[in-house]
Description:
By secondary structure, this protein is mostly beta strands. The chain has helices spanning 56-59, 203-215; strands spanning 7-9, 23-28, 35-43, 47-51, 68-75, 78-90, 96-100, 104-109, 116-126, 129-138, 142-148, 162-167, 176-188, 191-198.
Amino acid sequence: xxxxxxxxxxxxxxxxxxxxxxxxxxxxxxxxxxxxxxxxxxxxxxxxxxxxxxxxxxxxxxxxxxxxxxxxxxxxxxxxxxxxxxxxxxxxxxxxxxxxxxxxxxxxxxxxxxxxxxxxxxxxxxxxxxxxxxxxxxxxxxxxxxxxxxxxxxxxxxxxxxxxxxxxxxxxxxxxxxxxxxxxxxxxxxxxxxxxxxxxxxxxxxxxxxxxxxxxxxxx
Length: 220
């Protein structure tokens, strides 16, 4: 299991921090890729129930009572992980896994300053106009995007400008916007490259952003 920042000894009076319906990622012993399941419920200090993982057929020969795995999930902006083992595999009346309740949970913050190279379509509202952009890196702190400098239609963005950035995150049906302040602007031929710092983020924007960042985190 990779080294994480901080080990949390579970407080029996508080229990584990996880919500029903949370997507969890499983790193199963003997399998060189991760699969995901959905957290269903638990009996505190006894066991947890998750759905059978996606791609179950490709990993079922490695899933049996006593097999070991690492479970990772996102909660309130942090990555939590714990080691566990399979207690029972159920296929009727529900398709689920009963796994051991963790004794120790490890936690680390998503690297909020780390920029992640991505390609996300978006748009920006600024100076009483709007225009399409391509977001090519993003973090919890801010993003960097580029757009065609159509001088006839608008004045170029400048350092200090307040803008609203809309992102179309993968798997999210509607684009989501957040306020940002322009921190730097540079030119690349006919395009402008803009670095912007997010202002106070709402949960409407922060939650899908964090899930997106979590989905592209390295699970090695």
